[in-house]
Amino acid sequence: MQGRSRIGGSPNELHYAAGIVSFCFYFRFCVDRVWAVGRSAPIYKVKFVNGVFVDKGTVSPTSPCPKNGPSGCGNGNSKSFYIKGNKGDKIRITLTSNTGSAVFSIFDAAYKVFKNGSAVTSWAGTLPSNGDFRVNVFTTKEHTPFKIKFTKL
User: Fold this and answer.
1) With bands split at pLDDT 50, 70 and 90, how would you rate the model's confidence at 57?
2) CA distances to 45, 105, 131 from 87, in Å
3) Domains in the chain, CATH or no CATH each
4) What global pTM score does this model have?
5) Number of helices (H) and strands (E), helices first, in the chain?
């Protein structure tokens, strides 16, 4: 044990920590695979200019993995935004898509969906508290371009 830095106060803790490291290295491929398949996309800040923010993107549905392995499947893609809001801010969000199949959900800072804010194409309401409010645009039907507009009322 000389020449090694110890984690914790006993050799058992050091061995436990080494076991975790070995576990991580042993499963590194799997962890990397999960990151490659399940890596979350960036979350874009809504930057209001004269009370309006507009953005465009494309969303795709998920596809199930075949029983013989994970190749050929995917998590689809979504696009996420966050609004840095204050209690009492009045916000309207509208979403249009070429196919009509893109929808969004809006969540509070604790990641609880807003009332009447799940899988919708429009939402208007008053923010209940200060914080970051997340909006996820997604589809369950087909690949589709979309346009989303955030308005401070």
Assistant:
1) very high
2) 18, 19, 8
3) 1-39 (no CATH), 42-152 (2.60.120.380)
4) 0.68
5) 2, 8
